[in-house]
Amino acid sequence: QMLASSLSLLLLLIILSMTPITVVQSLHHVAVIGAGASGLAAARVLSRNGMVPVVLEKQLAGGGVWDYQKESQQSSQQSSQQQSSSSTQQNKKTTPMYRGLRTNLPREIMAYREKPWVTPATVDDETETETSTSSSSYVTHEQVLEYLNDYKKDYDLDRFIHYGSTVTQLTVLETTETTPASNIKLGSEPLPKIRLEWESSTGSGDDQEIQKHSDIFDAVCIANGHYALPSVPALPGLDEYFKGTVLHSIAYDSPADFTGQTVLCIGGRASGSDLARELSAHCPHVYLSDATAYTNAATGGGASESTTTTQGNVTVVPKTQSVQPDGSITFFNDDSQQQQQQHQKVDTIIFCTGYEYQFPFITQTSNLDLTVGNRRVMPLVQQLWHADVPNLTFLGLPHSVIPFPLFELQTEAIVGQLLLLEEEESVVGNDENDDSFVLNTQTKKSRHDQAQHDAVAGGSQATGQIKDTHFLGNAQWDYLRQMAKAAHLYDEEMEQFIQTNKAIYDHAGNERKTIFPGGADVYRSTRYKRRDDTRLFDVLSSECEAAAAPAAQS
Q1: Which of 5, 19, 508, 545 is deepest in the core (most CB within 10 A)?
Q2: Helix axes 492-513, 476-486, angle to 10 degrees
């Protein structure tokens, strides 16, 4: 018997020596859906804090919307999109990036906090004068993708990313004897695990094979972006009377495609203004329709005497009202919402009207209460944590912000709160006036109350409009402070970073407002240099300031 036992033990040791040993490197098994700018930030922050994220990216390369692809490359990657009801709509492209896009934010504030992105400069040894070696702080989409690829390479993020992996289903699991809760708790409340299912493919053509995968995670960060599902508002008379071409700006690639056409761009924010500017070099006339743009266009912010303003071959008109039986377009007055006696005929209508949020992997069988529509996602706490399942988070929903540093701080807040949740006692600052966000101190009811308030109030701006729930604008600075405090990273250095970003953001915005929508793109020639120690910046050169100087002297 002793001999048999010895032989059994020896056999067991031999088997164990041949079996690979899996080393658990992290307490939490975390997934990230998407490897765009937000997903890369999540991968970096999670890995920096000792976790080994599983990043699932449906494309064959990272970079998200910044990975510009020509129509021929995209034709094989069509995704479900909201189409205009017009039969003439054309939508070959599936991402909003277009050939001539340059950022409308300077690179000095676009960068992740951990990886500064400065305008290259040289210093003259004799005069000690600094000269930029770059043409502008405003960069092309190729340069943004290069920055993201450098970020990915610097922190070896490819080791976490599974390319060509399309998530098909997310399911919040019921906690049972056979399916234990996750490693994350809210006080005494255990949080459920989350199962993801996804597909990947090998080979191509007739040899292509689809492989299905499934895994269970303690936490999931959704970072799938919000520039894939076009938002196309109803326009009375469009289907019945308009015989031209209708498309959403996601389908736009080059102004040369519209040579000789009269074009109406509906939506006067960044994409509408930029497309009008590009089109004006190829089209006999371009109309830019926006409810408020003409006011700023005429006077740089003051009231305009007319609801129509023209410079060159670009005319800014109020909100589009309808398409008339003869195919002409009518517009509203801005204040009275009464029809102007103005009819314009155009060949093409481009809806520059933004995008809807979409999560195709969250279905009726996901066991999750989630309402998505009218540019709002609810119920969410701090526009990030799901109120019922806080270990499910939604990165990058806020808009009208500086995105990359926001993604970074959101993930740091997630990590900070995940670490907090491991402790039996809530951790709060020593200062009784400390307003740091601590998820562990909130009940499910208080989380729901906060989420409901944000959704109904219209976000931090409290506009009362559902579509403004995730709009931040000038509220982004306090939001960043809240995220920094949730991450336990708020200090003087963080405040300097936020204040410097705000200073440059405000300066860039003021320069942009002086430019006629669709007019000369001179603000993008400005070059900046950060000075975080003073919370300020230097303007190395600015055509806007140079043009304003003679006017001020006169």
Answers
A1: 508
A2: 160
